[in-house]
Amino acid sequence: MTSSSGNEPAGFDPAPARLTVGIVSAGRVGSALGAALERAGHVVFGVAAISDASVQRARTRLPDSEILPVEQVAARSELLLLAVPDTELAGLVRGLVSAGVVRPGTIVAHTSGANGVGVLAPLAAAGALPLAIHPAMTFTGHDEDLARLGNACFGVTAADEVGFAIAQALVIEMGGEPVRVQEENRQLYHAALAHGSNHLVTVIVDAVDALRTALSGPGLLGQQIVDDQPNGLAERLLAPLASAALDNALRRGQSALTGPVARGDADAVVAHLTALESVDVRLAAGYRAMSLRTAERAKTDPALIELLEGRR
Length: 312
Prior knowledge:
By secondary structure, this protein is an alpha/beta fold. The chain has helices at 28-39, 52-61, 70-76, 86-99, 121-125, 144-149, 161-173, 186-214, 233-252, 260-263, 266-277, 281-298, 302-308, and strands at 20-24, 43-48, 66-67, 79-82, 107-110, 129-135, 153-158, 177-180. An 8-stranded mixed sheet has the order 3-2-1-4-5-6-7-8, sandwiched between helices.
């Protein structure tokens, strides 16, 4: 292969041909990407699946694939997709190198957000083509996963321009949007995504808990009883506001900031902290931390920032 630097021969096409794909393992991400690759015309011949849940996902999402040991999956793959947790990736790579089962020329791609291609260096030294292809999406293991891939960006990292071209083509075939992430920026990329998604869940769940307490007691005639089950009255009350806030933030940036912290209303913030502390001091601590960051972003009243920092 030549690099995609503008000097390619006439007719050069970076898109991979139909590939024989093996997947380790059939978790939520691996099974969803495997189904997407099959939908694009690639052949997922084998999947390594150990847990009962993984076996069930493999049989449901990839019914034509064999469930095989890792070594057999790796040995037969043209594209080997390593969809294991971040903490297991380096050990898996060492095991594959030790077993000597990955053939030179095999495209080896992992789905870890925090890692670039450096973690695949031992396989690259043995002749594999390393790729990092991370879908910036949360996966549930249900049917909506495949539909969500159509709106997802993938952070891609490769060792050279040929690798980037192959990664880009694979992501486009799966219905996603490829986004280039430099090797040295993978941790920052992953931290930003975790902060914006995982912590959002914590904020929402904390707010729901507080709302449930605020709504306790007799309700209006016909009003749903407030309980601790998901998708209840508290969630319905919060959903339009939270959805609008997220949409405004993504569309309008920092100008979407509203509320007492952005206005510098120290009295309201103190009242909020008192009310939240009566429910859970940890919830109040989270509110204080996020309020301080909001106040810093909004460049609000310095006295409010001092109060939130505990300096007054």
